[in-house]
């Protein structure tokens, strides 16, 4: 009787193990088929874009003072005097020290050539020194561009290198964050148009890559000579854009 019980138990264990092995093989086969199906998913790769025109909020003016003297010290002293006068005048219209920066300061000799009577050769000699001091203003007073230039030239600025309008980094970031969703929706719209004739539908997203480097600053107004600008200087809207690359999973409808 004990032998019969043992044999029955052994047979039951064998049958159970056999069922478990068969079930495991079926599960693995099912997972393999699903994996193969995933590996052969069809996709459509689309680029979506979104653009917004915004008013600039930053004015940049680069101007300077050039002086020439018989000595470097004399030229530098005159230059510094004129620049101090300009800075003090700019502060009366709200320009702060934080909005001012020196672009460059350069001192170099001025030469003249003349013919040596004895040798007949031309020689150069120093006749003075030129000092060029260039200052940059970056301010949000964009409507005051003409008056700032007038004030600077009245106080001795004899070089206006550039006048430009731009958008501050914080405003660019804010606008771009708002454009990402629009760019993704644009990509989806393009994908739906592309797959409609193929009788496909979107079932998911494989990847999204965001490119938010799109920004086109307004062209700069440049002039190297002194001028008085009593006429107004106007800024223009500037484009900020975002593009996204979206890969959609698609399948038959």
From TrEMBL:
Signal peptide: none annotated. The lineage of its organism: unclassified sequences, metagenomes, ecological metagenomes. InterPro entries: 26kDa_periplasmic_antigen, SIMPL/DUF541. PANTHER family: SLR1258 PROTEIN. It comes from marine metagenome. Pfam families: SIMPL. This is SIMPL domain-containing protein. One of its GO terms (biological process) is DNA damage response.
